[in-house]
């Protein structure tokens, strides 16, 4: 009898190492749909708040030039360093989320981000502004790095396309809406109010995110084991080994993959270029619209970014439609044929159609502006560009993770992020000089020709992807 009582009261060892079966209520995959949607939406809102901070700064450049008595390029450095912080911050935040969980990273990094944003707003000289902006970007970036992991915690691979399309709106919709709000803030309240706007949005998102639960499997199991009185296993990489492992996974491996893996290099190059052109528009739009024949005010120039916002929304809808109409039938066909998943190349339809939108939008905008066309024609030209940009990036992210799996896929996405935000921070520094030297039409056309040269990349991977994957130095998941 005593033996039976002991068997009944002993907690199952499986609760420590894995879920207690497919219906384990602690598994985020089994949470109610409304709860999973909430936990997927919150990282997207954190990502929006952080990326909003890139472009909200740009309408204030003229005010900052006057306040600190500096040139335009020097003033734009405040955008560049913030963007670089977003690119390199995940090197720090990703290992923290793996050791302590997702929730604590969101809830600790956000207040630090707000403190540095507050410091930027109160800056009395250029040095303090640049330092605070860089540190704000660095400490705000976990929302972008950890968000993808949260979505993986919540949804199965076949369900992630729709969630990914919605989540990836954040790093594109934030920069699109930043100049709109920042334009009115800078024109009527001064440049410091662009930083206060960042604070207001982040505080609202932070309050919304407070009820979040932990979604990371190892942390959930560890806490459950502690609750049941089971001693958790010791880490395989204690002390300095853990630091070394994190450094390899979050910096050295991404850099190695960037220069040795064709999938990572070419998709990162293409998406980084398209993303950098988006950031280039933060300087190009004021250059075009604030001069004759348009002579827009700062706030009116900000409103022209509505075209980019509309393109981003259409791209998210496109991603959902393609997943429902094309990818899911391919997935069901693969399952019926005895495979675990559809081939990763079926993730590339979005990129293949979106790749045409980027050059169309660039040539349209460049020559319409050069000929002095009505301002609405230029605003509409931004729609296909933004649509193609997000379609491309959504496909690239999904394809990369399908090819390399969760671990190496995260390193590949990190490589993409470093490349993307580095180019995004650098491009605005030479925008005005390029437009002055070449003229609006030819400067934008140069970007259009480069995008045409990269257009075949997703088509090449669609056709030759299986052969390219076989030669990978890293284990491929599919």
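-> sequence recovered:
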């Amino acid at each position: 009898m005593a033996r039976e009582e002991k068997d009944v009261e002993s907690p199952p060892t499986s609760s420590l190492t894995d879920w207690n079966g497919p219906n384990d209520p602690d598994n985020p995959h089994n949470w109610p749909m409304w709860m999973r949607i909430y936990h997927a939406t919150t990282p997207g809102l954190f990502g929006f708040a952080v990326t909003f901070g890139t472009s909200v700064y740009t309408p204030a450049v003229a005010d900052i030039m006057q306040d600190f008595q500096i040139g335009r390029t020097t003033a734009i450095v405040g955008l560049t360093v913030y963007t670089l912080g977003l690119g390199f911050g995940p090197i720090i935040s990703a290992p923290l989320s793996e050791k302590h969980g997702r929730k604590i990273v969101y809830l600790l990094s956000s207040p630090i981000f707000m403190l540095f944003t507050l410091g930027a707003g109160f800056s009395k000289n250029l040095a303090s502004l640049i330092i605070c902006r860089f540190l704000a970007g660095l400490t705000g970036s976990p929302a972008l790095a950890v968000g993808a992991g949260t979505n993986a915690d919540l949804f199965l691979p076949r369900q992630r396309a729709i969630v990914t399309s919605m989540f990836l709106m954040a790093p594109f919709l934030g920069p699109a809406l930043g100049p709109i709000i920042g334009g009115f803030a800078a024109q009527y309240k001064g440049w410091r109010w662009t930083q206060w706007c960042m604070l207001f949005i982040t505080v609202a998102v932070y309050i919304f995110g407070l009820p979040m639960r932990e979604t990371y499997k190892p942390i959930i199991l560890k806490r459950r084991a502690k609750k049941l009185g089971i001693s958790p296993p010791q880490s395989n990489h204690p002390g300095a080994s853990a630091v070394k492992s994190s450094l390899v996974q979050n910096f050295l491996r991404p850099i190695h993959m960037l220069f040795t893996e064709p999938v990572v290099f070419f998709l990162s190059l293409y998406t980084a270029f398209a993303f950098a052109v988006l950031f280039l528009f933060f300087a190009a739009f004021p250059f075009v619209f604030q001069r004759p024949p348009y002579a827009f005010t700062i706030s009116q120039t900000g409103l022209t970014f509505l075209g980019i916002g509309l393109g981003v929304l259409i791209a998210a809808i496109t991603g959902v439609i393609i997943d429902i109409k094309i990818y899911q039938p391919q997935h069901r066909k693969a399952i019926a044929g005895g495979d675990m998943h559809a081939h990763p190349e079926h993730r590339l339809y979005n990129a293949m159609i979106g790749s045409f939108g980027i050059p169309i939008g660039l040539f349209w905008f460049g020559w319409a502006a050069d000929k002095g066309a009505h301002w609405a024609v230029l605003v509409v030209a931004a729609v296909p560009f933004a649509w193609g940009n997000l379609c491309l990036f959504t496909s690239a992210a999904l394809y990369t993770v399908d090819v390399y799996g969760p671990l190496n896929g995260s390193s590949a996405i990190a490589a993409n992020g470093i490349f993307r935000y580095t180019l995004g921070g650098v491009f605005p520094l030479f925008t005005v000089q390029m437009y002055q030297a070449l003229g609006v039409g030819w400067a934008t056309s140069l970007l259009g020709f480069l995008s045409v040269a990269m257009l075949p990349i997703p088509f090449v991977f669609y056709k030759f992807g299986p052969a390219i994957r076989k030669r990978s130095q890293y284990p491929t998941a599919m």
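Residues 375-454 form the longest helix (80 residues).
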